[in-house]
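Table S2 (continued). Query chain:
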Amino acid sequence: MSIFGEVPQAPPVAVFKLSADFREDSHPQKVNLGVGAYRTDECLPWVLPVVKKVEKLIVEDSSLNHEYLPILGLPEFRSASSKVALGDDCAAIKDNRVGGVQALGGTGALRIGAEFLRRWYNGVNNTATPVYVSAPTWENHNSVFADAGFKDIRPYHYWDAANRGLDLAGLLDDLEKAPEHSIFVLHACAHNPTGTDPTQEEWKKIAEIMKRRNLFVFFDSAYQGFASGSLDKDAWAIRYFVSEGFELFVAQSFSKNFGLYNERVGNLTIVAQDGENLTRILSQMEKIVRTTWSNPPSQGARIVSKTLNCPELFAEWKGNVKTMADRVLLMRDQLKGKLQALNTPGTWEHITQQIGMFSFTGLNPKQVEFMIKERHVFLMASGRINMCGLTSSNIDYVAQSIHDAVTKVQ
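Corresponding output:
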């Protein structure tokens, strides 16, 4: 008898199981619209030209070695990452009350932030503090905060399925009714999975209630620049909250906007009340990191740091990001047009009203099953599709498959 004989089999991670099923499918017209990774029009991973250039610079830099980084990470990476999120003219940065923690991707940034909040937010060991995540949200949000020790994780209204848009009234009502000092996880831009973001005026209403009711803001920023093609536009909500005096966390990921998926490059930006508070916060963050991964890896952080800290490379990177964003916008426009040309029942305006990598199509689970089994188009059970999986060679097939699913399956 094995001492591990009672270990149950864990269910597979849905999005990676979907990719595995796709690989095993032999159908010649199969399409993968599941995993959130950018693809070119040839449906191939794209290594950003600026990343290739910086990698060569790193190889040729004889001054670099493999010594441990500081526990909190590469200093020039951390500061540059926070500046990208908050803006060059951010008063909080000038006041020396902004810090960063290099993390293993956006997930690592969320986990370090969640662990700190569980230990130190509004008193010690806050397992009972409510944590609110949007309904729906990226599935890992629930698990990250649960594994950090939070016992009370609640949904807040977000998606209006009937109108295929934001349920602003429900969201504002949940903010009003949440216990004071509750933690809210907000998507900074390109909401995953719906692709539906509040407008600037709606963000202002959200901020007003959260400030008045002493609710904590934890932004997840996984797609800055990738959503609209503009770094500043995609960071507007974060910067507005900071300008309103919020203390907050921002979990940043550079997987999408740098194409550094397997380098796991992330940063947790902390905006504190003052410099003294920040120093104490970072001292506790250091203790958490030390027992989690001890020191972060350097390669991905060096790529991002060199790019963000060099004006010429930074400009080139912004151009690369816009290339990706523009292709996604083009695919959205074409998919909507083809569905309308097919006279597919229902409204499809939400395809172009949404933003970023993902679109919530509105397909129900039975229609999704039809898409996968009958048309070999792989998408999440929620109806979410990765717009980057659409190409000029498969978009007609996907549009026809959606049309068939809607007309044949209720």
